[in-house]
Design goal:
Layout: H1 3-13, E1 33-34, H2 43-46, H3 52-63, E2 69-71, H4 85-88, E3 93-94, E4 97-100, E5 106-108, E6 113-121, E7 128-137, E8 140-149, E9 160-161, E10 166-169, E11 182-188, E12 200-201, H5 203-212
Parallel strand pairs: 1-2
Antiparallel strand pairs: 2-4, 3-12, 4-11, 5-10, 6-7, 6-9, 7-8, 8-11
Length: 225
């Protein structure tokens, strides 16, 4: 666990900062299934990579009755990114936490803060609509990022939000960069230079960038509570 993540966990335990649920699903006690990108090495699934509806159907099949499909931080996803700009650039390591959710599902602010970026990345397999929130931990600033959102409900730039306040809804493939519907969530130790953090990085850059954009998986891990 990085310095920021460890400090957040300690502050949450001490009641110094409130961590709210990101989505209307029990992320701590509910059943979950973890996504495995290697399934796309199977020709049975590979064709779905260029069809968002088929891709969505496969993920829902994997989710089954668990209620939640989770895409892990730090996962190698080369098999899922074949033919994409990410593969061409050698950036196939996932740098966030994915939660598969239906379009229109409400998204809530993890911590109290302010919207410092509310925009759209208009690229195929980009973030689509996204938000970046600024927070404080004592004198220290940190940020949370929410990607692949719907257009209409996205919170406006400059808005102050409470922990647990609705800030957006999940977008469909026409609004979210062409992906199956899901939330991409990241922690950031600094304001990302582009206004949004990199979602995929190379193996060579992972350690360096993981220090700037640490693993947020503690938010769904009941072990530390």
């Amino acid at each position: 666990m990085t310095d920021l993540a460890a400090a957040l966990v300690q502050s949450i335990k001490m009641g110094e900062i409130k961590l709210a649920a990101l989505v209307p699903v029990d992320l701590l006690r509910g059943k979950r299934t973890y996504f495995q990108a290697e399934i796309f090495n199977d020709p049975k699934y590979k064709a779905a990579l260029t069809n968002p509806d088929q891709f969505q159907a496969i993920l829902q099949e994997l989710q089954g009755e668990s209620g939640l499909l989770v895409g892990k931080y730090g996962e190698e996803r080369q098999a899922m990114l074949v033919g994409s700009r990410y593969e061409a650039e050698g950036r196939t390591i996932h740098l966030g936490l994915d939660l598969l959710l239906a379009p229109g599902t409400a998204i809530f602010a993890a911590f109290a803060g302010q919207v410092v970026a509310s925009a759209q990345e208009d690229k195929l397999l980009g973030y689509g609509n996204y938000l970046l929130l600024e927070h404080r931990l004592g004198e220290r600033k940190f940020y949370t990022f929410y990607g692949h959102l719907a257009t209409a409900e996205r919170a406006k730039l400059g808005r102050a939000v409470l922990a647990g306040e609705a800030i957006a809804t999940i977008g469909d493939s026409k609004q979210n960069g062409g992906w199956p519907s899901h939330l991409h969530f990241q922690l950031c130790t600094e304001f990302p230079p582009a206004g949004h953090p990199p979602g995929y990085v190379s193996k060579q850059d992972f350690a360096k960038l993981a220090a700037l954009y640490p693993d947020p998986s503690f938010i769904i891990d009941p072990a530390w509570r």
